[in-house]
Amino acid sequence: MSQEYEKYTQEDQDVWRVLFERQITQLPSLACETFMKGLDDIQFKKDSIPNFIETNKILKQITGWELYVVPGLIDNKSFFELLKAKKFPATTWLRKMSELDYLEEPDMFHDVFGHVPLLTNQNFCDFLEGLSVIALKHIEDEWAVELLSRIYWYTVEFGLIENEKGLKIYGAGILSSSGESTYSLRSKTPSRVPYDVKKIFDTPYIKDKFQEIYFVIDSYEQLFNSLDKIEELLEKELVTKT
Q: What is the CATH number of the domain that holds 49?
């Protein structure tokens, strides 16, 4: 599959512009510094949908990763095989103007705007690759995949980071959502707790509303360095379950 850039309609371009402008207005005070720098490095602009060919040239130079076009949600094995190969699966379709605030299935704005800027950070990329290696070892075990999916959900999709810059967002599911960007940091409703592999294993994720709990890392090195712990605790969980 390819992006087929010439097939984007004016509405597609308008949707990208509206979503981009809405997020770029609020994210400088909410998003992590790595995301904002990555957004500049990969040269995303409000006036045009990113061209994957150009984006991949930049990404490959920075971390060796690239976008890989998929039709939509793909099976777990294919997903983790792509990550292991340093290819991030991304759709090419955009939501309609009438669907700006919620989609059941992630579109290109989520996949590309939300995820790609962090793919300029080597520790983050190494975490993705390492997590996929663990997942592929246990890909036939549904419970193992479920537990590792929770790690992915509460880090890559809905993670927060706190360092000298304060509490910020790095999860793509938040960064691509206007409402959750503010809610995740400003609302008193959700819990915000330190990153804890065991606690994440014990926390099923939810898809139909804003999150009830966010896990907070202190660096992307912490994420990468937690891979051994993830594998160790996963093995214990699988032994206990059997």
A: 1.10.800.10
